[in-house]
Amino acid sequence: MSRILVADDERGICEAFGAFLTGEGHEPLLVSNGKQAVQMVRDETPAVAFIDIQMPGGDGLTALEEIKGIAPDLPVIIMTAFGTLESARRAIDLGAFDYLGKPVELDQVRELLKRALHKPRKSSVAAIEAGGDGDASLLGQSAAMQTLFKKMALLGNNDLAILITGESGVGKELVAKAVHKFGPNSEQPFIAVNCAAIPDTLIEAELFGSEAGAFTDAKNKRVGRFEAAGTGTLFLDEVAEIPLHLQSKLLRVLQEHSFERLGSVTSIAFTARIVAASNRSLEDEVEAGNFREDLYHRLNLASLRVPALRDREHDLELLMGHFLHQANREIGKQIHGIEADVVSRLKTYSWPGNVRELEHCVKRAVLAARGTTITLHDLDLAEERPAHSSVHAGLRQSLRVQAREIVADPDRYGGSGFVYQHLMDAAGLEIIHAALALTKGNQVAAAKLLGINRSTLRKKLSEAD
């Protein structure tokens, strides 16, 4: 049996904690503010403490700081329903054992107790230096965002390579900028490269630079992004789009911490922190042969998953308010609110474009609004995409008829045992050619249209040659 301190000004939470802890075989010590929590630590020496941030008569972070002065090894778990990156950073900086968002899940409390009572109690993790940057993708009270804040805080004072994953529009670059801003080299450059936006013929020179005369039209020496990053951070967005032959060179740079400009044999030291991002699964790309496995592991020393907006339902109104304020400032309007039926409609939308789509939606509504409140008439939402199971009935019927004809005469399509793969390869290639024809041969645009990786598109074309 262990004594467990709980400090929360909500009586119902204290009572629920008390019943739970008693049922788990512990002795609960229940108080309602920070000052009482500090005194309880002096008098009763609890084994673990759960402390809410916002309480009258002494807030939780102040209490945490005092408690660490009295009992530096005591595991203190901070609880909050209104967490921010700043509060997560400060809690960990002050030595909190963990950071728990409300509403509290009892299974999570049970697991935290298990860890706190049986693992080393003194935190050796330094926290990031955070400030109120106001970036929308770093606003959130949802459990998913609290988890992200905590992981970002733990990655602050080191230069490990980080892989940021998440769907398009969730704010991966904003997270990368925050990691840089709160890291040890925040005064150094932050250099971002969108690997999907650079043609294959230019990407090597863009990344590593070139000497005059290194290739046609290279009239002057050019400093690449690796060199420009110095001792700061190099952010490789959509890293899965880097061609395979350049992936080998990138791996070598990360291993040897040096590179050469195109047309030069002089090595240049590379000491920047690498932060990479992808909206595709690099594990799947490795499996498909489009991405080097050794490079994947080199980039994925630490990982951050940015949640999709549909997984952040409790953050939606907070983000709406932020974007409304931002749009008013940019457009020069004074829209004071959003009607309830608009909020309800936005909450039922799936947000395939995530936070970026919400930002544009609110901005369009502010532009369209004629009064001081956004109404349904001002809303311009894209139509929901059909689910995969809801393929158009006519298309499915057509495919069904053709499939039956094909399997009835397999010798015409590669012979028995080869029909499926033969037809899948042929169909895939025809779809790629159709997309290329529509996009006038632009492989980047064709890949985006089809929803596949550009490397996959190139590979399918090369296999057909």
Short description:
The chain contains 19 helices and 14 strands.
Task: Explain this structure.
By secondary structure, the chain is of the alpha/beta class. The protein contains 19 helices and 14 strands. It has helices at residues 11-23, 34-44, 60-70, 85-93, 106-118, 143-154, 172-181, 200-208, 225-228, 244-256, 282-287, 293-299, 316-331, 340-348, 354-368, 393-408, 419-438, 443-450, 454-464, and strands spanning 3-7, 27-31, 48-52, 76-80, 98-101, 162-165, 190-194, 233-237, 258-259, 268-269, 273-278, 302-305, 337-338, 373-374. α3 links the parallel β3 and β4. α2 runs parallel beside α3 (60-70).
Quickly count the domains.
4
Largest sheet: 5 strands, parallel
Find the CATH superfamily of the largest domain: P-loop containing nucleotide triphosphate hydrolases
Quote the CATH topology of the largest domain.
Rossmann fold
The strand count comes to 14
Strand order, sheet with most strands: 2-1-3-4-5
| Amount of helix | 40-55%
What's the Cα radius of gyration? 27 Å
CATH class term of the largest domain: Alpha Beta
Q: Which structural class fits the helix and strand makeup?
A: alpha/beta
Please state the second-level CATH architecture of the largest domain.
3-Layer(aba) Sandwich
Shape: globular
Q: Runs with pLDDT <50, length 5+?
A: 119-133, 386-391
